[in-house]
Amino acid sequence: MKEGMKYFLSLLGDFLTVGLAVGGSVAAGVFTGWFIDEKIFDGRTSPWFTIACAAFGIAGGIKNIFVMTRRRFKNEKNDQD
What we know:
mainly alpha
């Protein structure tokens, strides 16, 4: 396989991983908050747990972006050496 195509596919995989990780984090936070609001407290606390857990999901997604970016730069640095 050509070196350029290999690099392109590597970048594509990284971007797809970041997108899925961020989307999954936010979705998990929203679902968890909704579940706590609606199923545990029978809607009495709606939408507060949903908002709080969504914020945690967004924070986790942003953290995932930083972790994956750091990992990508570390891998590129090791490949250059």
